Inverse folding.
């Protein structure tokens, strides 16, 4: 069975998020911990900027948890750059035992799931899990140098600059991790590298269906089912695929790629990148869960497992999706109803956070 029910339900002790200037103008601006004014972070290259971004995020999460770096047993993480160098170099600087991962844009859920399993089974006391992306480094690796000014098709998404990290711990908090589902690789034959939503939606459908079935739940049992970065088009495809399986995703469904930008920003189908679900989870979702405004959510980070080599050789794009179920563990509180419409380019909720 793909789903692992966690016996001890470890705690999500802290979440920390950092985003770039563009993302900091969007609907979630009041929830992010830190908004960059300069996306270079005063580094000489965008790849080094991404490395510094992730290091600051990991340190921020540990500090927010009230812990020291030496209190962290393991660092689970990955990124989109070749050989996950942002994560590896971050681990080098922090000197935390490192478990490097790659599930493309599904890396946040994968790292969070494995970190939770380690703590749940008594293999660690405190674990940090995180990832990030940088628009400019991702563009240079997967598409074209920015200097070329290539035109984007309408199906394209915008790799966010930003990310987030979570500290999973035995120390009690208001959020617990109750179950995780590791997805299968699913390929519906999409070969267009500018249509990531269509490539990843079938994997999201497969993982959500398996998780709900294995947990004995329905979609209505969740205050929020949140996919990673399918964007507007991918979300619409997912809704249709789920309906085919007689699972209705209603107003309790949204996508991080749709939530992070508003309609005034020219980002086509919305946000993408490993940092997309990482930043939304560790900002808006963390604060709403901590307050009891959500009682149970299902985070389903989605990833496209292609490379420049496979794309140039004409291969189709395999998709992956991993799911993590999070529950409010504090005192009972009246649930705040948050309306996520199918056109989820904005978040209709009260402001909060700093």
């Amino acid at each position: 069975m793909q789903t692992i029910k966690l016996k001890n339900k470890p705690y999500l002790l802290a979440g920390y998020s950092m985003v770039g200037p563009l993302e900091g103008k969007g609907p979630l601006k009041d929830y992010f911990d830190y908004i960059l004014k300069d996306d270079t972070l005063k580094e000489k290259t965008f790849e080094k900027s991404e490395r510094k971004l992730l290091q600051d995020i990991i340190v921020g999460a540990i500090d927010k948890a009230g812990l020291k770096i030496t209190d962290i047993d393991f660092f689970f993480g990955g990124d989109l750059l070749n050989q996950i160098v942002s994560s590896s170099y971050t681990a080098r600087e922090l000197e935390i035992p490192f478990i490097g991962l790659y599930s493309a844009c599904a890396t946040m859920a994968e790292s969070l799931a494995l970190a939770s399993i380690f703590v749940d089974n008594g293999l660690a006391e405190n674990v940090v899990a995180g990832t990030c992306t940088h628009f400019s480094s991702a563009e240079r690796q997967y598409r074209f140098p920015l200097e070329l000014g290539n035109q984007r098709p309408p199906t394209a998404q915008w790799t966010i600059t930003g990310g987030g990290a979570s500290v999973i711990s035995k120390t009690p908090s208001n959020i617990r991790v109750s179950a995780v589902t590791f997805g299968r690789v699913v390929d519906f034959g999409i070969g267009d590298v500018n249509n990531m939503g269509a490539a990843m939606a079938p994997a999201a459908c497969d993982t959500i269906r398996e998780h709900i079935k294995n947990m004995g739940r329905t979609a209505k049992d969740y205050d929020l089912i949140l996919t990673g970065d399918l964007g507007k088009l991918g979300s619409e495809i997912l809704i249709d695929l789920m309906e085919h399986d007689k699972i209705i995703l209603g107003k309790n469904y949204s996508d991080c790629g749709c939530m992070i930008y508003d309609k005034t920003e020219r980002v086509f189908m919305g946000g993408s990148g490993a940092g997309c679900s990482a930043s939304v989870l560790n900002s808006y979702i963390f604060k709403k869960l901590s307050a009891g405004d959500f009682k149970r959510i299902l985070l389903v980070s989605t990833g496209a497992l292609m490379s420049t080599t496979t794309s140039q050789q004409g291969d189709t794009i395999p998709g992956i999706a991993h799911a993590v179920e999070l529950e409010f563990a504090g005192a009972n509180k009246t649930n705040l109803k948050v309306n996520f419409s199918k056109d989820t380019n904005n978040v209709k909720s009260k402001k909060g956070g700093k």
Summary: The chain has two domains: 3-169, 175-328.
